[in-house]
Amino acid sequence: MSIAVVCVLLLPILFSCESESSGSAAETKNTENSASENDDSALEAIGAKKGEPTDAYSAKEVADAVMALYAPEEFPEMGMSHYFSGADENSDNYLEPEMIGNYIYGILSPVAEMEYLESFAFNIPGGKNVFEADILKIKKGEEKNMEAVLGVLEARLRKKDNGDVWAYAPQDVPLIQNAKVMAIGVYAIFLATTDNDRAEKALNEMLYSGNAPIYPETTAEDLPQNETAEPKPVLVDEVVNVEPEILFELEQFTRPISESGEPEEGSARRTAVPSVSVKNYSHNTSFMIGGKCEVGAMIRVTGGTEEIYTGSDFGDYLVEVPIAANGSSVLKLTAELEGRLPSEETAFIVKPQKNISYYDDSGIYGVVLGYNYMSYFDDCLPDYLGTNLISEKEIESLKTRTAKKISDLRDKGCNAEIIYLLSPNTMRIWPEDVPRRYDEYKGETLLRQWKEGVTSGGAVVIDLTDVMMERKNDENDEFKTWHKTDSHWSEYGSLIAYEELMKHIGQKFPDAAPRPRSDFEIYNKEVNFGDIYATLGLSLSDMCETSTFVEFKFDPPHYNPDYDTGHVNIYDQDCSMRMSVRPIHARVQFDHTTETNLKGLNLPTAYFFRDSFEGPLHAFYTDRFKEAKFKGMWDYRFNINDIMKTNPDYIIYVINERNIKNVLYD
């Protein structure tokens, strides 16, 4: 029975209907009137005393009533999963105890506080959407543990409040900002809906006489780890005397210097002074300087707690300089080209700040600005530092879960091969560009542990780490496999991934082998920056990136790469139209099915699970599959009945290393 039908049947009980006949109080359940008139008999009919909330309903009944308040268009496009206690273990509504830990804390483990509960109901959205309504009902005699149970829901809120919402479901940011954790009587409640007031009013009418106080609530604003204010823009005028100024002229150095220290005869060239378009604080004790310089120049900044000496990228540079925690610092910027003198110095007088809190306030990703114009989202750090390793028990669980997926497929008559197409973290490929304050862990990795688990269970992992390292070390290769200002691979990196995947599939389906390179034109172009730099609060005109794109010499059946690399009308302040490397996922991120536009070929069928790395890859292989079903990005629910509608030859996961955590327990 669908949740809509359940709610329709339940609402007359919960929200007052006219009595069809006179008689006992149980037959006149008009709780709305009782709330306003304090009708004791009506309250007693649902087990409540005047001024006290009832405990007559299960968590599911309360949750269903909340869900019934919202129109279908208010629910996430990627759908929702509805889990509740007492569900049949073979149904889609059953939630394993270990999976509760995954939803709450991101680890595969039971949650101890669940022992305090009589019942529970979780309504969890797919993908990175936010809309959610969860109810936990405490057992009689365990009321003293309400704060601990509320802590579970607060942990759920913290887990949801992360950069994924800002990056992949920005329309849901208000929902996470206004999310609420509260309690009414024995019910602990988590609301992240389009209208929490509507839900709270209905819950009050349902459970209270209308004038009793609600249990002290905790809102998102009260959580110290989840401040939800709008991202605070960093303004130039927060910098003390930051306007670029030449502190001193070096007239005596206008000509080359001999070994003796005397100017040599003849003219000499000095490296041009870099332009400065970015001069902002990134943290209270870190300052960013960025702009344009001569192509190939090295950038040097002194005066901070660390001297920065780093390369530029096609004439673009951005550096993050740590500064002293007390007093003022004088930062001196120069550019240097081989065979020339350094540029004249540009100086910035800065001091530590108190309120620079991009990441703490908004829930967006933190950023690690590296050397040579490289940047990383900081959720790459656990892999780099080795702080996210799992236990042997969890590795064995990966093996068991993977083997069960395959066994369930075979029981349904499906012979699909499960393939994971794994893109490595950029920190793994370019560790030399990670700031020196981070020490790379050289031992075990989550990547290797995960591969051991899923391959032992019967899946195939196409790990692109080695091939990406080979491309990086190819001195004759002028093209980027990864953007430097965006967290995703470039179209060229996507082309390489496409080739590796289809080489594997082509062993069984030769017609599905990758197209030759002659079908693609690879080129570099200067464009606007991507999602990492956008997180820093920069304006479009502040920074650029020269990155690598791919033009198709054929017509793919489902969108050209143009959709994904921002080939849209984005205008700089000078009104010139520019592209961007920032992915635009809207056209492909939801559930959809594609079919090849090629005729007379023996091609396979596929069922895709994916994160955002599939976006730039999407157009490359849609003509290589007779039919391909794409689940919404970030939706990893392994629904065997839905999979069998396609009965695929391949079940393919496209994931980035930093997102392995999202498929550890799917």
Sequence-ordered SSE layout with sheet pairings:
Blueprint: H1 3-14, H2 31-37, H3 40-45, H4 59-67, E1 80-84, H5 97-105, E2 117-125, E3 132-138, H6 146-160, H7 163-168, H8 173-177, E4 180-184, E5 187-192, H9 196-207, E6 215-219, E7 278-283, E8 286-292, E9 298-302, E10 308-311, E11 316-322, E12 329-336, E13 346-350, H10 358-362, E14 367-369, E15 375-377, H11 381-385, H12 392-411, E16 417-423, H13 426-429, H14 446-456, E17 460-463, H15 465-472, H16 491-506, E18 520-528, H17 531-535, E19 544-552, E20 570-571, E21 577-578, E22 592-595, E23 605-610, H18 614-621, E24 627-630, H19 640-646, E25 650-656
Parallel strand pairs: 16-17, 16-25, 23-24, 23-25
Antiparallel strand pairs: 1-2, 2-3, 3-5, 4-5, 4-6, 7-8, 8-11, 9-10, 9-12, 12-13, 14-15, 18-19, 20-21, 22-24
Summed up:
This protein folds into 3 domains: 54-222, no CATH class; 236-364, Immunoglobulins (Immunoglobulin-like, Sandwich), CATH 2.60.40.10; 380-662, no CATH class. It contains 19 helices and 25 strands.
Descriptive notes:
The protein folds into 3 domains: 54-222, no CATH class; 236-364, Immunoglobulins (Immunoglobulin-like); 380-662, no CATH class. Strands 1-2-3-5-4-6 form a 6-stranded antiparallel β-sheet, sandwiched between helices. Strands 17-16-25-23-24-22 form a 6-stranded mixed β-sheet, with helices on both faces. It has 19 helices and 25 strands. The radius of gyration is 29 Å and the shape is globular. The two termini are 25 Å apart. With 666 residues, it is α+β, with helices and mostly antiparallel strands. Residues 1-39, 210-267 and 563-577 have low confidence and may be disordered. 26% of the residues lie in helices and 21% in strands. Helix 16 crosses helix 18.
